[in-house]
Each structure stands twice: as C-alpha cells, then as structure tokens.
C-alpha cells in the first residue's frame, strides 16, 4: 500500500471516529428546579428549604409545525395514549414539600407528568403515581418509559391547563417554574409558540 493511500485511509478513519464521538442525541435530557423556604445565610448562602425538580427530555422544534395540524396530538403522543410532555424518558416531578395542584394535596415524593392533548387548547395536566424507568427495559411492566403503557388507574391529579400563544417560537421544549413565591407558583411547559401552565401551592 502506498504511503499517500495509507495517510488518506488513516485521516478518513480519524474523521469517522471524531464524527461518531461528536454526534448529538436527538432530544437531550434536562431538568428545572426551584427552592421554597429556607434562609439566606450571609456566610454560607441559601440553606435549608425544600427543592422541587422536574426531569424531562428536551426535543427540538426543528422547523416542524408542532401544534398547527389536526393530528398534532397523535404526532406528539407517538403511539401512546397521552403525551409524555417531553421526549424519551417519562417526565418526573420530584418534590421535597407537599404541593396542592388542582385541589389535591400531594405528599412530598416522586411523581410522573403527562398531558392529555385535545383540540382548541383543551389540555389536561396529569400527575401520576406511575414510576419512571431510568433506562428502557421492555420487560419492566412496573414502571413506564415515556407514556407507553400508561394507564389512568394511577392518576393522582387531572387538572385543566391554561394555554397561551407566545410571540416567539421556543426551539427547545422546557419545563419551568413561573411567578414563584414562598406560597407557590405556576408549573409550566414551553415549546414552539405554546405555554401551558397550572397553579400550585406549597404546603
């Protein structure tokens, strides 16, 4: 084999390895946090208090019309009965404080979140007791991956969401905590030109 050909093959192999190592996943994981209670200690910073966290997949819009077609719910549900409100893994709510959502008080703990999508912005937030799989296991019937195999028998809360149209299109899906005070705030999902939220209080 000639030296120029060997060098060409080596460079090509190196580029393939570099490309494989830099390949991005389609929907990166993400998390949103807030903290309620606690005190601001001048020496150590903010201490104590209770943390509330949402873990979710963060798909990108990628030029798609996400909510403007008649079958948008079927597209987002991807074969599941409800939307996982994210991508890949099941969206999780972890709270160190009891929360009241939709008139129901949830003890501190771990929950999963789904959204039942209906036309004309009639969206319903579902807080469920279904556990979430941390990695996909098709033989694990005791926990969910995404919203596949979701059933409503473990629903803890079902409450209507306030859906708003935004002036700007958000490229990457995000869960957020809005208008937070010590007494509560709003739990919100933002994607494309939609913001859907529900109020909650901290007990």
Overall description:
By secondary structure, this protein is mainly beta. The chain has one domain (about 30-200). It is about 15% helix and about 45% strand. It has helices spanning about 5-20, 70-75; strands at about 30-35, 40, 45, 50-55, 90-95, 100, 105, 110-120, 120-130, 155-160, 160-180, 185-200. The strands form three sheets. It has a six-stranded antiparallel sheet with strand order 1-4-5-8-9-10, with no helix packed on it. A hairpin with a 2-residue loop joins strand 6 (about 100) and strand 7. The longest helix has 20 residues, at about 5-20. The N and C termini lie far apart (about 75 Å).
Keywords:
globular; 4-stranded antiparallel β-sheet; single chain; 6-stranded antiparallel β-sheet; mainly beta; 2 helices
Tell me the overall shape: globular
Order of helix and strand elements from N to C terminus: HEEEEHEEEEEEEE
Proportion in helices? 10-25%
Overall pLDDT, averaged?
89
- Give the domain tally: 1
In total, the number of strands is 12
Strand order of the largest sheet: 1-4-5-8-9-10
Percentage beta strand: over 45%
Describe this structure in a few short sentences.
The chain is mainly beta.
């Amino acid at each position: 084999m000639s030296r120029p050909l060997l060098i060409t093959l080596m460079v090509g192999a190196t580029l393939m390895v570099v490309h494989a190592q830099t390949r991005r996943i389609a929907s990166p994981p993400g998390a949103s946090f807030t903290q309620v209670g606690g005190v601001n200690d001048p020496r150590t910073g903010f201490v104590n208090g209770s943390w509330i966290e949402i873990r979710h997949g963060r798909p990108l819009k990628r030029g798609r019309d996400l909510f403007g077609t008649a079958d948008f719910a079927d597209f987002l549900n991807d074969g599941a009965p409800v939307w996982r409100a994210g991508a890949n893994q099941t969206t999780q709510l972890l709270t160190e404080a009891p929360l009241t959502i939709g008139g129901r008080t949830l003890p501190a703990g771990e929950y999963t979140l789904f959204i039942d999508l209906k036309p004309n912005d009639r969206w319903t937030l579902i807080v469920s007791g279904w556990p979430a799989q941390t990695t996909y296991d098709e033989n694990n019937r005791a926990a969910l991956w995404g919203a596949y195999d979701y059933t409503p028998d473990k629903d803890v809360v079902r409450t209507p969401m306030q859906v708003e149209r935004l002036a700007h299109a958000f490229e990457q899906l995000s869960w957020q905590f809005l208008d937070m005070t010590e007494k509560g705030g709003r739990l919100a999902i933002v994607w494309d030109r939609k913001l859907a939220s529900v109020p909650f209080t901290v007990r």
